[in-house]
Amino acid sequence: MDGMRGRHEGNSVLTENEFKVLSFLSNHEVESQRRLSELLGISLGAVNGACKSLTERRLIQGYRLTDEGVASLQPYRVENAVIMAAGLSSRFAPISYEKPKGLLVVRGEVLIERQIRQLQEAGIDDITVVVGYKKEHFFYLEEAFGVSIAVNEEYASRNNNSSLMTVRQKLGNTYICSSDDYFTENPFEPYVYKAYYASAFVEGETKEWCIRTGAGNRIESVAIGGRDALIMLGHVYFDRAFSRRFVQILEDEYDRPTTADKLWEEIYADHIKEFDMTARPYADGIIHEFDSLDELREFDPYFLRNVDSEVFDNIVAVLGCDKDDIHDVYPLKQGLTNLSCHFAVGDAQYVYRHPGVGTECIIDRRAELEAQSLGKELGLDDTYIFEDPERGWKISRFIADARQLDPHDDAQVRRAMGMARSLHEADVSVARDFDFFTVAKGYERILVETKGRIDIAGFDAMAAKVARLNDFVRADHAKRCLTHNDFFNLNLLLDEDDRMYLIDWEYAGMADYASDFGTFVVCCQLDRDAADRALESYFGRTPDPAERRHNFAHVVLAGWCWYVWSLFKEAQGECVGEWIYVYYRYVVEYLDETLEAYRGMEQSRA
Asked: What pLDDT does residue 337 have?
């Protein structure tokens, strides 16, 4: 195939071997074709053929480019580079909670700065850094390195396709880079023949994106996972033809609901037959992508010792260990309120809780600490080790092989309801009061202050009904006691010995005893029959009509509180997902009937 003229924007005048010879001679001096063969890694016959053709067409004279030769390289000149730096890099928790991964110092250099310098050394000065998460930390790069900053406003709700959408007008002959890659050798060049994805060969089983190639090393398919395969690893190069078609597809498909979660590579893979992209293999050890903290430490043994991280300083201060003692660090499934990661010191395993965005507005950490301490004293949660009430971070013991409560297992639900009952009957108190309706009004007030009126159809009417129900509930004068208020299956864990723990006391306070039942029904998404069985388990008997009415009113109040909370969180830029609808549906399902039950009670008394 190399004997034919390759296609570059429809009218390339160079074969791949001609290009290799010409681009090499543009900034190197050699004395023989044999030396060219050695340096380029192509056969002496191929070099001889390329040099003969280039000489005949007056593109080289001897081993120097003519003016025509310089001009013939221009269609292949790299115009710019895009460095994607918008994501959270959650797999790099907890350090990524404090600063973006691309700004970590590895072997004495900031990752993204090293990459910018390598691009500039290759003559690529038009560099755009696409930022999102903690974007302000990257702004200094404009002055320090002369790069441009582009802000991806959708980084939290979409995958990395949104970063390329943000800079789609800049895509041409363009390097696409990740801010957290480390190249031991500079992989960038001023001229590139055609679109390629950097790759490396992996022996054995792998869960990475594996490449199958055809003639000319063209990528024919990609698949997640494989064996003894080339994998996608490192930077990518878009030529103009690739960029033009990719932007067309991206714009056409961007607003489809299924596109939001896709990597840009998945969009490419969906249309792979439409693209001429090759795999460019690199030798082992040149390209490094660090998927975990332990992996980075293997590359840079002094990384953790030198890292500027308040998180690790906190761990050292509480546990009395050295930074080098910390290992096995990885993120845990993130909750709706906070970010958490696992770590170990020696054989002991722990959880570090990092407060989520906006939690300082809605959570009283001192109240949490007081309730958490009582929970430990009552034997409901002995995982707690330390919490900083000023900044909201916490260290707890990790429960190995833990499983979450199954809300569809009646035996487990009975145990959970018994735990709730023992909490409610404990002769303890805390300074904080908790009331679903009052808390919801607080979220609503913050929303109005920051966003103006809540412009959602039916919101005001539903709020008025909930307020009326709340008046009825208060008139019950029900027992107030210490309640958890986030009492549902994700916070009820069972260890390998089947012991149950009630964790995460952020919302705990003195409240109506029915608050925990309300949360449990809503957040475990119980149907009516399951909710009735749970209530019977709580009382150890069939509840009377007044008890049932009061508890199911708290299903409405809990749903309403967490629904308004969800509106607040989404206004803060966080995605609550389907939960906002779950909360809303429980309000709709039970609001009118519980109001009617209370009105019926009023009428019977009259």
From this structure: 55
Long-range Cβ contacts of 246-250 (<8 Å, 24+ apart): 246/164, 246/171, 246/275, 247/168, 247/171, 249/274, 250/161, 250/164, 250/165, 250/168
Order of all β-strands in the sheet with 148-151: 148-151, 127-131, 80-85, 174-178, 219-238, 196-213, 278-281
CA distance 353 to 338: 7
DSSP helix, strand, coil percent of the chain (3-state; round to 5): 45, 20, 35
Letter for the amino acid at 423? L
Structure tokens at 451: 């966003």
Euclidean distance between CA atoms 300 and 12, whole angstroms? 44
Confirm if 19 and 47 have CB atoms less than 8 A apart: no
Rounded to the nearest 10 degrees, what angle do helices 459-475 and 436-451 cross at? 150
CA 435 – CA 307 distance, rounded (Å): 43
Q: Pull the structure tokens for residue 19.
A: 């290009």
Query: CA-to-CA distance for 24 and 239, rounded, in angstroms?
Result: 19
Predicted TM-score of the model (pTM): 0.73
Specify whether the CB–CB gap between 232 and 313 falls below 8 A.
no
Question: Which DSSP category does 433 fall into?
Answer: B
DSSP 377-428: HTTS---EEEE-TTT--EEEE--TT-EE--TT-HHHHHHHHHHHHHHHHSS-
Judge whether 493 and 405 are in contact, CB under 8 Å: yes
Residue 516 to residue 483: CA distance in whole angstroms: 6
- Neighbouring CB atoms inside 10 A of 439's CB total 22
What is the rounded end-to-end Cα distance, in angstroms, of the chain? 95
CB atoms within 10 A of CB 221: 12
H or E stretch covering 590 = helix 579-605
* Interatomic CA distance for residues 440 and 454, integer angstroms: 13
CA distance linking residue 299 with residue 12, whole number of Å:
42
Average pLDDT of the residues of the chain: 91
At 1 the pLDDT is: 40
Residue (of 179, 173, 170) closest to 106 by Cα position: 179
Gap between the Cα atoms of 148 and 52, Å rounded: 43
Distance CA 271, CA 214 (A): 16
DSSP 288: E
Measured distance CA(334)–CA(217) in Å, rounded: 40
What pLDDT was estimated at residue 469? 97
* In contact, 556 and 584? CB cutoff 8 Å: no
How many whole angstroms separate alpha carbon 167 and alpha carbon 161?
10
Apex 249 CA angle, 247 and 255, nearest 5: 100
Q: In one letter, which amino acid is 252? A: D
**Residue ranges for the chain with pLDDT beneath 50:** 1-12, 336
CA 505 – CA 521 distance, rounded (Å):
18
Residue 73 CA to residue 134 CA, distance in Å, equals 40
Give the pLDDT score at 495. 93
The CB-side HSE value for 496 (13 A sphere, CA atoms) comes to 4
CA 316, 319, 322, 324 torsion-angle sign: negative
Residue closest to 398 by CA, chosen among 452, 341, 449, 325: 341
Torsion-angle region of 358 (φ positive above 0: left; ψ -120 to 50: alpha; else: beta): left
